[in-house]
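Record 1 of the preview.
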Amino acid sequence: MTVTDARTDAYVDDDRAHHRFRVHRSTMTSPDVFALEIERIFGRCWLYVGHESEIREPGDYVRRPIANRQVFMVRSRSGQVKVFHNTCPHRGATICRKDAGNAKVFQCFYHAWSFDTEGSLVGVPDREAYGDGLDFSALGLRSVARVESYRGFVFACFDPDVVGLVEYLAGAAEYLDLIVDATGDAEIISGTNAYAIDANWKLLAENSIDGYHAVPTHDTYFKYLTALGTSLAGGVAGTATGLGNGHAVLEYRAPWGRPVAKWEPLFGEDAREEIDRLRADLVERHGEERAARMADTNRNLLIYPNLVVNDIMAITVRTFMPVSADRMEVTAWELAPRDELPELRQRRLDSFLTFLGPGGFATPDDIEALESCQQGFRSGGVEWNDISRGMARDVPQTNDEEQMRAFWRQWASHMAGDL
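->
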């Protein structure tokens, strides 16, 4: 199978009549497939860059890699959010050389060309040497083709003809609304988790919305919770839903406490009053039904192709960037109410690190599982992965794979050139 065979049925066998859904393993190993993904998926989809709270003041900036390209996001002096290609229009050198900071001017270290936060060229050494014929106004920083924000989440796309962000988000927008409305004035907490996994990026897309690996893979974590007094009665039963455009979500009743407004003994008696107050506030602002959904249910939200928002025991925003067919780089941030009490913030950070941190209970398990899959693909002998579970059900559950099939159908359409 070569890159020129990139039709839907070359990689994805979607046989609904026989309740069979298979994905060819070359999708996980082929450098040709990887190259086509960079062009047809990461070159044409909306990709998460960062959160507006990371650049609150004019001149605040963060540097990010997206889809093997370097960009940086900055709050301009006019208050706009800008995303620029991180390259000097003069001779190509990297302009923004720190991961985060504040600057009135970005100066290229190579030849000292300087640019303001609007991207305009404002300084050229020995400018008189160029005469009057050169149009310096055309030599400013280059913006990424499209930049839009939804509820504080900033996305960029390299394709100027992409549909608008709200249309692209489809049903995922409702879940971002739910998370942001529950959080209030949300901010990304300073600091990140960053690590690499020697596995194909699509394995983490699957894993992030895979409901039935949790019990066998994370057995140690569940035993830990039980030992601390958390009741896991009822498990993690819920629904699995495709949200359009490849997005998907698992939603299920939380068996553990949630700092947003669900107390449990692990939090301690001294936290009960404050968490009860937070819940009452949610009810007042959103009504009993919506407040209960915000407080008592978890959400694993995949925004195609590579953004996951885990609204579980804490709110983790995580991207996974493909580096090659068998390696990805993962970055995770924590989203929280800006004005929450220090003890609640500490509880949230503890939850963030205990489960999803690089040294937590879940992430090392998941890394081991995904790298094991990648090693298994190299073994050969088996051509297809099966992702058929739940095809015979009318209402997919968290233990089914409909949400993964939604991702793969979108992937196949992109790879076939249909989108």
